[in-house]
Amino acid sequence: MNHEASAALFARSLDVTPGGVNSPVRAYGSVGGTPPFAASAKGPYLTDVDGNEYVDLVSGWGPMLLGHAHPAVVAAVQDAAARGLSFGAPTPAETQLAELVVERIAPIEQVRLVSTGTEATMTALRLARGYTGRDLIVKFAGCYHGHSDGLLAAAGSGLATLALPGSAGVPEAITSQTIVVPFNDLEAVRAAFVEHPGEIAAVITEASPANMGVVPPEPGFNRALAELCSAEGALLVCDEVLTGFRTGPAGWWGEEQKSETSGGWQADLYTYGKVIGGGMPVAALGGSREIMSHLAPQGPVYQAGTLSGNPVAVAAGIATLALADADVYARVDAAAERIRTATSEALTAAGVAHSVQNVGNLFSFTFGDGAALGWTGTGGGPRDEDEVKRQEAWRYPPFFAAMLDAGVNLPPSVFEAWFVSAAHDDAAIERVLAALPAATRAAADA
Ligand code: PMP
User: Which HAMAP family match (predicted)?
Assistant: First the structure.
């Protein structure tokens, strides 16, 4: 496969852009090689500037639930663009998108639109602090909520102690307001509340983590978190930026409500991004009228945005959600299951020990013998970030490279979920399956 044009563009980009990219994982740092520069994408396929075509299992890192360049979404964007790119005044479309969210997620009565997932979680936490009058935040190690200062925090030395900066440039004074605890560890959250009585404003969690690979919450974990927060007067912020409108019409929260062991809870605030914008910059937070009314201009918690509710972006979101019906979710789920199962079988056939974890149509692989490496998740996979890190991660780069060479675009990191779309038809899936024997051999030989 020829990557000459991408290599030339990467060299040019390195000159004028730090690391050559505008978001770090795109640089292929953990898998090596030249990132293909995208030229266009259609349905399940992505074409790079050298004319190579890939079955795309990144899907824009999640937004492209319907596949790339869905005609109805493109038409909605073109139509909105022709009417004006940005007004700085309210539009009917913003209300329509908020109504679509309120219809789908029962606990949400009001929605504030923003442009990125980072803004959504940052605002949700400011709102939780303004609402409760408390300062501290609890987050889970390995959960990613965007790059605002207080959420770029790494666990301190002991359980329930204040966190350390997770990036250069983040002041300790800010991360000292965050407590980082292991995921799926209810006792650690309890200990934080005991250690800091009346001081914790919110616990923030990914509805189901998929940013350390997929690590499902144990059955009843989210419900127990909701109960604990409610008993302690803290808010539960359920971050569905990645899972929202992807794992089902009401996100992973909605899927859990169908189950007796995991259902029967609700969060105080929900955050969305990715699918809600259909590939354009839209994100949102939502909750009860009572809590949301604390946001400006109604309440004292300030938040604003020149491009918030941008008419062209919102048009893509509305068109995407309008099309995301039961049939779309059934197609995404079925395609994801075929790819997940076939990949796992091919790895086993090649003698590569691994675990595959999924929440609905989101899935990822962890390499190694779980029993030997001490994974304690309910399905035999890792249950938290520490366990995810205990894996034979070096098997992924050669696997990834062989798949890319065979025309399959996987996430360029073992710690990311694979994203399937409703456009992944039999032909696209067959191409993925055909690439597996050689790629799994490469993983075995690593
Ligand atoms: N929360 C979660 C769960 C995410 O997966 C992400 C992005 N991957 C974010 C927040 C941040 O969203 P954005 O990149 O749009 O700022």
Answer: HemL_aminotrans_3
